[in-house]
Amino acid sequence: MNFYDYFCSQITTDNEDTIDTLLGNHSSKPRNRNIANVFYKAGFIEAWGRGINKIRHGMEAAKLSTPMFESTMGGVAVTIYRKVHNVGTVNDGVNDGVNDDVKLSVTEYRILNLIVKSPVITYLEIMNHLNLSEATVTRGIRKLRTRLYITRKGSDKTGIWIVTNRGKQEWMAYETK
Questions:
Q1: Contact 15/73 with Cβ under 8 angstroms?
Q2: What would be the CATH architecture of the domain defined by 88-175?
Q3: Which of 70, 79, 104, 134 is the most buried (most CB within 10 A)?
Q4: Overall fold of domain 6-81
Q5: pLDDT, tens digit, 9 for 90 and up, residues 95-118
Q6: 8 A C-beta contact, residue 71 and residue 18
């Protein structure tokens, strides 16, 4: 999935419409009256000709950049900008101290132990060997993957489990208890 700092949509207009016309009071002419009527009856459109002003006022109310309106061939391009967040570091400081002290459960250690001993083991084999439900095994593997103790190489059917260095250290610490 790609994330952009803006969203751009094009509105087709009559040749006599200008950006100034669209930003002021103007009539609305739907391209497909049947689709427009369905949206109106479903409550998605409350009044014709108010969309651009609603966008502008909504952006102002949210304290976001004003959208850019540009004339294009036979239409208007509307570019809406979004706030850019530094996603990589937002929770790093918060979660590092909290998650580092969380220990694995006995069940999670047992799952890790089976994966260390047999990297080709399947969910079904783990369920049968440990007499656990599918949900419990799924939850345990999800936690091991989230904590970066294991990763999966290859497909779900023919792939293998890779125990990371972090996972090996955790497994060895548990084995020496």
A1: no
A2: Orthogonal Bundle (1.10)
A3: 104
A4: Heat Shock Protein 90 (3.30.565)
A5: 554 555 567 889 999 999 999 999
A6: yes
